[in-house]
Amino acid sequence: MSELFCDRLLDAIDDSHAPICVGIDPVLESLPDAVREKFQSRDESEAAIDAIFDFTTKILKIVASTSRS
User: Fold this and answer.
1) Is 15 exposed, middle or buried, given 0-12, 13-18 or 19+ CB atoms closer than 10 A?
2) Contact 32, 25 (CB under 8 A)
3) Does 63 reside within a domain?
4) Which of 1, 7, 12, 23 has a Cα-to-Cα distance from 42 of 20 to 30 A?
5) What pLDDT is stored for residue 53 in this prediction?
6) Residue 13 and residue 17: Cα distance in Å, rounded?
7) Domain-located, residue 37
8) Where are the alpha helices (DSSP H) in 1-69?
9) How many domains does the chain divide into?
10) Mean pLDDT of successive 10-residue stretches along the chain, which has 69 residues
11) Considering the domain boundaries, does residue 55 fall inside one?
């Protein structure tokens, strides 16, 4: 068995045929500028909600499409 965590994790995923869990804990200030700027013309709280929703939805779509491969 490998000593590297990533190797053990990949082996466990292969053995169980289960995808990895993706944790998303978005912080508005940490989002890419392009995502935050896309919603900056809106009310501040609505812009924050929309930017976080947009970002997390895109991440989930990317992960979902790669887990089917």
Assistant:
1) exposed
2) no
3) yes
4) 23
5) 93
6) 6
7) yes
8) 5-16, 33-38, 44-67
9) 1
10) 81 80 82 88 89 91 70
11) yes
The burial class, CB within 10 Å (0-12 / 13-18 / 19+), for 68 is exposed
43 HSE (CA, 13 A, CB side): 3
| Sign for the pseudo-dihedral over CA of 49, 55, 61, 66 | negative
Which amino acid belongs to residue 43?
D
Rounded CA-CA distance 64/68 in Å is 7
Residue 56 confidence (pLDDT)? 92
Q: Which domain holds residue 44?
A: 23-69
Mention every residue, 6+ apart, whose C-beta is less than 8 A from residue 20.
Answer: 9, 13
- What local confidence, expressed as pLDDT, does residue 26 receive? 83
Residue 28 within a domain: yes
